[in-house]
Amino acid sequence: MRLLLCLVLLTLVAGGCTAGRRVSVSCPPEGQGPAAPFPDAAFCRLPEAAYLLMGESHTSPCDHAAQRTLMEMIGASRSGQWPQGTPVVALEMVATDRQRVLDRFNNKLIGLQELRQELDWDRTWGHPWELYAPVFQAARDAGLPLHAANVPQRLVELVRTKGLDAAAAEAGEDGIHLPETIILPQQEQLEFLREFFSRHSEMLRKQDDAGFERFIRIQSLWDTAMARNLVRLRQQTGRPVLLIVGSGHVEHGWGVKRRLREFDPGAPVLSLLPVRDPEDLQDAPAGELRFLCPPSHFSRLGYAVEEGEAGVVLTAVIAGSPAAGLGMQVGDVLLAINDIPVDGIGDLHVIPMQLKGDTLRYRLRRGEAELELTLNRSPR
């Protein structure tokens, strides 16, 4: 099964180069997901773009392995293949007030552990560091500088509660991290986001029109600010910009991609998006490449799962993690958390919003037996 998962392909959906050999990388260590080979036919399209938007699911080991492999391939490519220079890498998960930390990492003044601490990663982003660290290291090894792309959390909260103008006035000198205006969604995206918000509100048994308005305001703030920062970064460096970002900020040509068209008209923008079903590799719109990554999830408790015929199966348990201390084992099938059934990877994104208290009860199938493991976690 692990060998099959290593055969993750990026499929070219718009014409271009002739298909060539696949550049393959050995599987990474357990818990960090499979390697993702990219055909030359797709890779040779990348230098055409001024902006490359690589989507991810934040907890998908496969998506992050694909990012790491892409960095390695860029680093190994011929300099003449990139007429504008190799890309700089912008990060949704780092706010612009932390750029000095990234500069120290880019200049090899600090290592990965110091980077995690100085970014205050576990508080400000919170998604598993174990998935992102190899990507950041691969970027540095390839000579691709890391740059912050998002808005500081303190300013996000100000905009959420008071609006952009009041937030900018109260922020003082920190207002430089805010966009001059917020570009709101078009009607089609607005309807999509309303349906998304309603589903989550029903799960939380809470409907709130004011909450939806704040949700739209913040989503639009993030998309607008990231697009503005990408344009500035390209102007400052003269190089293409590769953004690592949640897929929801890129899909359907909405989000960051739409706002880039307004801020930098005519600049070529190319999306690289993971899909979970092979059928979704087909019929992508122009300007979009798709790569196949099977459904997977890495928990901050230190276990990884993949979705298969047997259900949601543990594929890795990190030594010394809470999951290891609990007694989880590779091969266990995850059946339920606090009696809420786990039928697929998507449930693991929703269930945390429904949990109350500090006790987690995992119901697992191990061989023919079922067992329940209980974890008492302290509030974060």
Automatic annotation (TrEMBL):
Lineage: superkingdom: Bacteria
Signal sequence region: 1-19
PDZ domain mapped to chain residues: 301-345
Pfam families: Cofac_haem_bdg (PF04187), PDZ_6 (PF17820)
This protein's UniProt keywords: Signal
Record InterPro entries: Cofac_haem-bd_dom, PDZ, PDZ_6, PDZ_sf
Organism the protein comes from: Megalodesulfovibrio gigas (strain ATCC 19364 / DSM 1382 / NCIMB 9332 / VKM B-1759)
Protein name (database record): PDZ domain-containing protein
Residue ranges crossing the lipid bilayer per the database entry: none
